[in-house]
Amino acid sequence: MPDQLAFDWPTGVALGPDDFFVSEANEEAFAMLGTPDAWPERKLALIGPKGSGKSHLARVFQAQSGAVLLDTRTIPADFQTDAATIIIEDVETLPQYAEEAVFHLHNNLRAAGGTLLLTSAQPPSRWSIALPDLASRMQATSVVRIANPDDALLSAVIMKLFADRQINPQPALVQYLTRHIERSFAAAADIVARLDAAALAQGRKINKGLAAELLDKPD
C-alpha cells in the first residue's frame, strides 16, 4: 500500500507486517499471533468487533505460518485436511452440519501438535454450537481480544478507510472525526462511507464542514 504509507500516521501507531496498524488496542493480539508456541494446547481465539482487523491479522499469521484458512460459510460437512496449522474465521457462524468435521479437525490437530487459530466477534462462551463435545473444546480455548480503538488507532483506521477510497483527507478532518464519532471501528467505516457518498451526491469537498453536517455537531 505505497500510497497509504505516505500518510503521516498518528503518534503511537506502528506499522506491522503487511501494514497492520499496531497500537495499545491491538498490540497484545499482534504479539500473541507471533508466538503460537506459547498458546495453551496451541489454539487461540482472536476476538474483536467488526472492522477491528481480525481478518487482516489472521492473514498476517497465515503468511507467516503457511496456515490453511477456512471460512465457516464454505466448510463442507466432510472436510478433512492434513495441514498442521489451521485458521477458522467467524466461528460464531459455523453451520451445524459442519460441527462434526470441525470437531475431528480439532482433535486431529491436538493429537499431532498442530496449531488452531479461531476468529470471532464473540467469545467462545457465546458461540451457538450444538455438538456438546465441540462446544466444550471451543469454550476451553484461550482468548485474546482486540479492543475498541484508542485515539491513535482510530485516526489510523480513518486514514486507511479514506485511502481505500483514493481520498487524501486533511489532518484536521481526521482529528475532528476522531474527537466526534463513537470510538469504534464500525463508526469509522460508517462516517467515511457517508462522507464519500454525500460529497459525490452534492458535488462538495470532503472537509470538516461536511462532516459537521452529517454528524449534526458544530464545526
From TrEMBL:
Superkingdom of the source species: Bacteria
Cellular component annotations (GO), alphabetically ordered: plasma membrane
GO molecular-function term, one example from the UniProt record: DNA replication origin binding
BP term (GO), one: DNA replication initiation
Protein's name according to its UniProt entry: DnaA protein
Source organism per UniProt: Yoonia maricola
